[in-house]
Amino acid sequence: xxxxxxxxxxxxxxxxxxxxxxxxxxxxxxxxxxxxxxxxxxxxxxxxxxxxxxxxxxxxxxxxxxxxxxxxxxxxxxxxxxxxxxxxxxxxxxxxxxxxxxxxxxxxxxxxxxxxxxxxxxxxxxxxxxxxxxxxxxxxxxxxxxxxxxxxxxxxxxxxxxxxxxxxxxxxxxxxxxxxxxxxxxxxxxxxxxxxxxxxxxxxxxxxxxxxxxxxxxxxxxxxxxxxxxxxxxxxxxxxxxxxxxxxxxxxxxxxxxxxxxxxxxxxxxxxxxxxxxxxxxxxxxxxxxxxxxxxxxxxxxxxxxxxxxxxxxxxxxxxxxxxxxxxxxxxxxxxxxxxxxxxxxxxxxxxxxxxxxxxxxxxxxxxxxxxxxxxxxxxxxxxxxxxxxxxxxxxxxxxxxxxxxxxxxxxxxxxxxxxxxxxxxxxxxxxxxxxxxxxxxxxxxxxxxxxxxxxxxxxxxxxxxxxxxxxxxxxxxxxxxxxxxxxxxxxxxxxxxxxxxxxxxxxxxxxxxxxxxxxxxxxxxxxxxxxxxxxxxxxxxxxxxxxxxxxxxxxxxxxxxxxxxxxxxxxxxxxxxxxxxxxxxxxxxxxxxxxxxxxxxxxxxxxxxxxxxx
Length: 615
Known about the structure:
The protein is an alpha+beta fold. The chain has helices at 30-36, 49-81, 98-120, 122-125, 146-152, 155-158, 402-405, 468-480, 503-529, 540-548, 554-574; strands spanning 162-165, 172-176, 182-187, 191-196, 201-207, 212-217, 223-228, 232-236, 241-245, 251-257, 262-267, 271-276, 282-287, 293-298, 305-309, 313-317, 326-329, 335-340, 347-352, 356-361, 366-372, 379-382, 388-392, 395-399, 414-417, 424-429, 435-440, 443-448.
């Protein structure tokens, strides 16, 4: 028997689909290990040349695996680069402090591991890529009709292009649930219908026999609000009336803040109302003082509500302030519709009666782009991936995301005309789906818009395929994560930060802290002074007196100087020849100043009283 060639172990790579844990490697029998060693052969049998050839083939295989390992590592690093947050710290070795260096190195290791893990799981977490229409040669995407698009896509996607003919009950308002699972349509003549969007199944249908001005889903597809002729009503998914909100009168537009559970309304009276749907109380109501309002939306990033008024002004509101946070002049005429980019809340699109559609940057409140429409637009909407839908009359234009964020676009992405030139009253993009719903005077139409929806969803945020138990758990989680209305402000990142106090307040606080510290020390000093003396040579009072011997004190200096002065006076009184000055040395009356003095010689006839001033 020939000695088998040495087994070549497979190199474990980071991108392999095999489990990372794995069981322990099985140990080969000793005889097989001996046979697998280099140059070993069984006794009595010559070494075979085929074994050497097999060993050479194994060496080539090892080289190929090493090359594959390097290639996979390069791909992994390239994919992990987009998950890195910021530039890595360079020259960590130059940091002098050892503790800081350890912290920085540990933080960099965590960031690298997180980016690598994200890159490893990218193919599982992000399995789908967004779609798009690609034109060839002289073709243009806006020339493709819905029929041509439906013929080019698969059967499931082609089912999304359909029309509901309801000419006697329109025009219709449209709304989708946050996860895109259900569709709600409300006709002007009192028709309400709830449709399961996934399988196009009718859930409930009612006739209110009253004009419906707007419809809006609440936190889930179980409840929705309908703004009727006078009051606003809450219905469940079976069409049963749950509440009548008599505070919301003559409402023209509804909105819902899912993070705060606030139902927002505005209408003919120009009063903006916030109502909490968890306990049914009015949180705030503000008079805009700008007349009737028919356009309302909110910024999903910070919860601020945006209203478009009849004088062309866009106002930003918060339930915490009775005056608008920002007033921005957008058009020279009434504003018909308003929409905001749901991706990051930085861009807002407004449509006015002056046949213009403008894009504004909410960071600078300046106009970015301006587009003209053939007629004044009645509704606008922005998809999850930034596509802009503009509807005017019986036509719909869909603009690519670059028309908002990039350079000004020269032509739309798609064009569509409704059947029988039905006038469009409302439009909504379906979340997590490439679909655009249109409510018009003839009923409801659904368009296929490739690349409009987000292809990858987070089941902890919105799950289009949720079950009953998942929906209940999601509702409980939303209630637990509910935000207070006080968190609605322009700076959404400011929530959770510490607000810096003014300098005057900081100075007062420092002075108060210093006074408190001095008072505390004074009390401690008094408490120590009241303590009873301890017996012994090493008692505290004796040690204190020893320390005070070398301390210069004003009282001690004055006492010492007084004592020395008294000693000098006593010495002068004891020796009359010492003089009468405080330091002595002066001449006594009747005596001369002395030979060493620089006084002149006394003339003849000088009296004894003056002789002491002469030699």
